[in-house]
């Protein structure tokens, strides 16, 4: 696994520096009837009794097999209080609630949950990149990778939004097999597997030899396919370079320079449309979709298929200017990386974050044949967490052995 | 198709009544260089030149095969203007743009697009219902329905959020065949097809004989499965009634009575978790997810699996109160309908809008065996639009014959 990261992102730069004053967050007693979280900056927060009550993990509270609660927490007394807190062991708190229930809590688990930002995926965070990304995250493909190897592939994918596998057997259908290692196949009207090559009477621009500017796929679907895999079976042309752009990095650059344009693109619903004999797909989404924390969650960008509603002229004036600022950055060489997919290469990328495209090619030079498929977004994240959990379990077993 | 709708929803009631003053919206010339939309209330809006320019449908502007644009609209002059507007035929406008391009526009098409609310799916709008829903939307299943019959099934599903098919052959796997008529199967860690019956060592509460309060499925997945189908193969028990609740109706009731609680639930990210040997799924979503127009887009509710982040105590206090208000309404008999799924019945429902559950059953009475699957949200909407388009095309052909 060779994964060199590009320039450090402005996202990282925004993190406050750790000062000498800061310490590790801790959980401690705030008196005989209170549990307190002390954050790294020294601020103290009384932990809500219901927050603790709904996390009880004794057999009366959860089904041990499924780990699911046996009771709806809205049935608890809304005025529930702690009536006794003790610390029988370091890092363990025993709590008695006003409804008579008693349970033990592990400080480490509370701290781990408190450390997550509210909308975090509990996975390695994105590291934004631009055209200066020094080296692509490339991995030698193996059908039976070890756990550490698989984790490193997933980490590259989760942080950079893509990974390029080399040496994937050039058998038709391999892309589905490889995709199934990471998540469930997402079928669309292009099929579970689609062939990307120049064809006459193409039902999409992708199936011509024209250049494709960076775009996200299928913004007209609900839900949008989360992850795309493209496997190169043959490439005898000199053009047709693959391009990738980190849409989150471009959105961040727009936000810094033109905050109003960013806000407008994040709040204007745009209708994306796709029309075929057997399909009429329409979905509304902003070009930059934010999560509840105000961070980009998905980019929807396909300038051949987008239709902004007929808003008042002034609003459209501002919208078209904002869209142009975003569009020109998305197409600027500063943000894009270009590389040749050769036979046996397979690129897997996050279709909600990265935009992809290609340069034009001359079909008279030879064949260019890719096979593609989509998988759901949550597969790689789930696999990453499972591998992390297994690693933690086996190191705990080693410690106790 | 017997589809009686329940009480008229408050959503409908909010629509302004058509007064004598109102007229049909029209498109007209606003002078020699302007096209104007006059809305039903008499207000006039100058139509933005770029809005028109990116809708040109001549062979120089779009690929006639794919209907996709040949040019990125951000390459148009941001100051583009109309230099001449004429009306060669009633309902047709000929426009010359300042970049020299000329194109014709159909007033009917502009009006159809202007009539859509910005986030509309361009499909029949939801009709909210509660426990007074007089009769269920039931349809006699046929493997080869006519277009009108199929449209009526889809209309019931799109407006009410569910439809019950009767007389579906009780062959295992039929649920996948029926689902494939409406959309692409969405596989999850429960399989492409899952069996719902009481089993020992269940990996989910669904696979026990316990009562299940109304909930949405798989809120811990990203994306959440859009539509669920449940097919009853055998039901020899007297309990195990199916329950459905219109989550949008409950959210609307909460909004009217407790607007602050509604706003809090719409803005607080909650982490949903699912843990299994081979999966660790986590997704953050608000209990009530809104679209950019401020209308409910999806309900995420599964009180055995939700974990609100460790916010400050005051915020959690308000959150738990709001959650309880929502939860108690979701479980109140006023909003729920209950019905027995008998062998051969199949219910298809919108998992982003409706909550489903069941009453407890006694497995010693006999067998209860359902098979289920998920399909993607956009399938039924696409099919509805395709059927509508074909209907319009054939009536246009009849008119011109």
Question: Would you give an account of this structure?
Answer:
The first copy, chain A, is of the alpha+beta class and 401 residues long. Chain A has two domains: 24-115, NE0471 N-terminal domain-like (2-Layer Sandwich); 138-384, Clavaminate synthase-like (Double-stranded beta-helix, 4-Layer Sandwich), CATH 3.60.130.10. Chain A has nine helices and 21 strands. In chain A, the strands form six sheets. Chain A has a six-stranded mixed β-sheet with strand order 7-8-19-11-21-9. In chain A, strands 10-20-12-18 form a four-stranded antiparallel β-sheet. The two termini of chain A are 32 Å apart. Chain A has helices spanning 10-13, 49-53, 107-115, 147-160, 174-182, 247-257, 259-267, 313-331, 378-400; strands spanning 26-29, 35-38, 44-46, 82-89, 92-97, 102-106, 138-140, 162-166, 194-196, 212-215, 227-235, 242-246, 270-276, 279-285, 288-290, 296-299, 306-307, 336-339, 346-350, 354-358, 368-375. In chain A, 26% of the residues lie in helices and 26% in strands.
List keywords for this structure.
disordered N terminus; about 400 residues; NE0471 N-terminal domain-like; 9 helices; homodimer; globular; alpha+beta; Double-stranded beta-helix; four-stranded antiparallel sheet
